[in-house]
Here is the input.
Amino acid sequence: MNVDYHALAPEIILGITVLAVLVVDLLRIPKYWTAVIGLVGLFAAFVPVLTLGFCESLDFCTEPETAQRVLFGGSFVVDTFSLVLKGLFLGATAVALLLSVGYIEEDRYWQGEFYFLMLCSALGAVVLASSRDLVTLFVALELVTGPTFLMAGWRKGDPRSNEAALKYFIIGVLSAAILLFGMSLVYGYTGELTFGGIRAATAALGDSALLTIGVILTLLGFAFKVSAVPFHFWTPDTYQGAPIPVTAYLSVVSKTAGFVGLLTLSYQAFAELRDVWGPLLWILAALSMTVGNLIAVRQDDIVRLLGYSSIAQGGFILVPFGAAVAGNVTGDQLEQAFFATVTYLLIYAVMNMGAFAVVIAGANRLKSTLIADWGGLSSYAPGLAGLLALFFASLAGIPPIAGWFAKLVMFSSVLGVDSGWATALAVIAVLNSVVAFYYYAKVIKSAWFDQVPDTIPAAELRGMGRAVAPSLQFALVLTAVGVLVLGIFPNLIADVGDVAKTVAAGF
Amino acid sequence: MLINQFLLLGAALFALGVYGVLTRRNAVMVLLSVELMLAAVNINFVAFDRLIGDELAGGQIFALFIIAVAAAEVGIGLAIILLIFRNRRSANVDELDLLKL
Here is the structure.
């Protein structure tokens, strides 16, 4: 059998890295080398993503006849969309790895195994971006979530971490079972497992109750993964209890993986069933934004606040899907919605990683994640307070920091559709942006204008607190530069999102 | 071919699993209930595979993948439950209430 190894190179390199980390962990050398190997592997896996993306301008690269490389009978497709998402997963995992190094080392729990699990999960995410068949999608999704159950419970002695792991695990396997039941009904009706086959079969056979139930259950399985309201109960608990670098990983890589599954399923496999998933995702988007934001307002723990904020951001990411609810949506508008979702995911990854990096650095110094304890942060740690303001302003969507562009493309994709439903969703999104602005600003105000609480040790105020680990500093600089550059030159991200939208074409 | 009977069995098992997840207190029983749901999915897949007469046997292969993944998940789940039992001397899910609104 002829296998296009170039198309598979990112997965192969990452797979070798995973094994290398496992072996090096056995050697009697400092454990941080396992993290270094993991980082090198992630960068090495990024190289073929680039060569595949810029194939036409490279001499050694053989172009496929079509714009995409189809492998294994259509189960695995490498196209511009999957390459963009692979780049996102690799980059976000690299940052999550940088965040973990100091944190896990200090905790004195196992390090090598932690990086091994994180890279396994990243491998699953990279495969997921290319999977165009129900079996591949399911196995890749389980490879993403399986290791994260263990990572969430990494602080073995901490009952909160245990609790986070068990809650996450039970909801995770429950959602997998619901997802699979939906997939079995879709398979039973269409007799196909590949997305292309499902699409052709649904176009030929038409709608039925069986298919509708199957599609709804499949998408609800993903709604758990992206923690859309009302399937979000696990999110705040797991985010708060898990080690903070794991929370950062969950809120970016694992969540994006769920959205990638939603994107490929709804725009490819269920492309003919827009009247089923459109209204469903409309409701999920409206509920996630509203409930996530309203509960976030009354949080006093910064990690829990970011948990609810990520639920609300997930709602904003779902908004372009909801725009497809109208029957008279044109292909262009669907492409625009797809573009908006991908762009939002890219920007969300950078700014959310940055926000968690600041929280890790702050929690390390203050030994507290209560917002009240962060009062007056600017008086003794101005750099940290500045970065906190930067990332939270980005999450709130204030120009010129990256978040505004994500909100802009999201709104323009909904308002481009001429229907009452799309307009109603846009109005809900605007109201929610205002609410979100309130609680993001509350954190910034606390850090810059409040008095330092008495509970903070005097040594901390004199700058005697522990220094921020170099890997964490690097991650902070990387994400801060990221949000500033993407905010001032949004064309960079728009071009990337633009090439990704080809998947939605062909309506 | 008998399809309704298989699908009814699958649906009943799935519903039983959902009921177990919602009502059982012990984490091990919750895990077993999820396994029931996955078994229901396997019955569905194999029954549909035979009904359709899939040349590639896609449904049966999917069932094999589900069995393998479910086994891995049980391994992870039991590890987590064991950890909680060691720390708390109990594996009841309703006693896990440290993290709240």
Summary: Chain B has one domain: 3-90. Chain B has a mean pLDDT of 88.
